[in-house]
Write a structure and sequence with these properties.
Blueprint lengths: L24 H21 L1 H16 L4 E5 L1 H18 L6 E5 L17 H10 L7 E5 L6 H12 L3 E6 L12 E4 L14 H20 L16 H14 L4 H10 L4 H10 L3 H10 L4 H7 L1
Parallel strand pairs: 1-2, 1-3, 3-4, 4-5
């Protein structure tokens, strides 16, 4: 990896913020607002690569594979965050989508940037998690050069996994040959080199799109409803009941009773109601349709 990274877009000073230390609070907010518009353009430019990543990842997970995010610092923390949100949102097992952060759990709350320079640690993480041919590994690095990430991706590729690279510098500045190359080019940061800003924002946006798109492809969504939501607290129980009311003719009491009969599984409750099935029969039909509610309904 290059030791002089001054040429990278993420390291350049931003001409628009040269007087940052002289701005009023309102002027600073307005500047952030203008600069953050570039995140939308960056996502639009990366649309085809993001779509390919969704397609490849959904295919791999549909064959029993897993999705790993790996990174250091802000990039790694964002991967951990996205992975952590999948079980409550889509009722996925914790091992299906995993975030790996250089430095482990301690690095979530305390900076450990020095660990990003150790490529061997990234490779070791792939071995520790038993990454194989049906898995997908997304390496996240704002500046594109993080040795820890490249060590992981190269090891993952050697183990037959699908490799996806996500960075905020143009390919011309740091070319790679991974399976999918996602470039989220948002330009220099307002605070030069602080990639927790625009680069962090656009990375979070891209991960939102990737994980949600994959779960849609896997049948975890019906219409625009999270019918696989894990009902683990009062807020989510209320959401589940409202979802049943909205998608059926049932009142709240009836929807609550149906949810209870389904074992707190919205997707199962809907299939039970629409196809006049008990919980066991509905579960068997869903399983036969790989959990896809729309497909299970059409069977009847």
């Amino acid at each position: 990896m290059p030791t002089n990274r001054g040429h990278l877009l993420t390291e350049q000073p931003n001409p628009a913020s040269q007087t940052l230390d002289q701005l009023s609070p309102l002027e600073l907010v307005d500047l952030f607002n203008r600069e953050d518009q570039q995140t939308l353009s960056a996502i639009a430019t990366a649309r085809e690569a993001l779509a390919e990543a969704i397609t490849r990842t959904a295919a791999a997970l549909g064959q029993g594979g897993r999705l790993f995010y790996i990174g250091a610092g802000t990039s790694g923390r964002l991967g951990v965050l996205d992975a952590a949100e999948c079980p409550p949102t889509f009722c996925t097992p914790p091992e299906l989508v995993q975030g790996i952060l250089a430095g482990g759990a301690a690095a979530l709350v305390r900076s450990s940037e020095g660990l990003e320079d150790i490529a061997e640690d990234g490779a070791a993480a792939m071995a520790d998690h038993g990454v194989g041919a049906t898995d997908v590994v997304v390496g996240i690095t704002a500046g594109g050069t993080t040795p820890y990430v490249h060590g992981a991706l190269q090891a993952a590729r050697s183990r037959g996994a699908t490799t996806i690279f996500m960075a905020c510098v143009p390919a011309a500045q740091f070319p790679t040959d991974y399976d999918v190359d996602i470039r989220l080019v948002v330009g220099p940061e307002i605070l030069a080199g602080s990639t927790r800003l625009k680069a962090g924002t656009v990375t979070k946006m891209a991960l939102n799109i990737l994980s949600t798109g994959v779960m849609v492809q896997l049948g975890k969504v019906y219409g625009n409803r999270m019918v696989d939501v894990a009902v683990t607290n009062s807020k989510l129980r209320d959401r589940a009941v409202r979802m049943l009311c909205d998608l059926t003719e049932l009142d709240r009491d009836q929807a609550t009773a149906l949810l209870d009969a389904s074992g707190q599984r919205v997707k199962l409750a809907l299939l039970m109601h629409w196809c006049d099935l008990d919980a066991v029969a509905a579960a068997q039909r869903l399983q036969g349709c790989q959990g896809n509610l729309r497909a299970a309904i059409s069977v009847g």
